[in-house]
Amino acid sequence: MKTKNIFSVLTAIVLLTSTICAQEESTGNFFLGLSGGVSAPLGNFASTDLGEFGSWNNTSGFAKTGFNIGFDGAYYFHKNIGVGGVLNFSDHGGLTKDDATKLGDSYTDAFGVDESTVITNSRYRTLNFLVGPYFSLPFNKFSIEARALGGLAQSISTPEVSVQLEDNPAFTQLSSTASAFGWQLGLGFKYSFSEKMALSLMCDYFSTPGVAISNENRSNTAGRLVTNQQMSWINGSLGLAYKLK
Fold this sequence. Notes:
15% of the residues lie in helices and 55% in strands.
């Protein structure tokens, strides 16, 4: 699904649910939450496949399973439906020594040289700010929670890759601080252990078409050339929520 279509769907959901519930009695429930947990990359973002001579794979991200920390909050204008947002930081590691060796071998093959040296630093760090509808189905102290969010995916950094081909000047895949549209779908539950406090467990799928990647001193397109890095992952988060009226 194209980015603009995803954004349109999320906007339509918010407007539709607001219209449906505009004349319902407002519960006025509001919550703030803090959570953290494991973040596992998926698809091209996690792939280490470099392709082969003449058909190099420019989408593999070499991302690693890392962690996420997030703040979220929502206002429930109906007992089952609300609008809220998430501010989430994710870390998916950097390239390992084995990854650098694998990349070096591919450039040696692509450029037809005897040796390539690859040096990497920095790591995948992303900050997301997403908004959209929240849904809740309560059962006494338990409630099933769902959310559909969209918004800004801001890259804080991506791995920088410097390639030295024998005695030639090095070229570099630069660390990216670009932004892009991202969307997220989540499902989980809350357990209220007091009138104000609840324990939450959420599983969220996040995806973005990708952040722009710049390259320096690159004189040709031989070998792997990354100009856009797609990202997708699943967050498993445990947290606390504070409820207000």
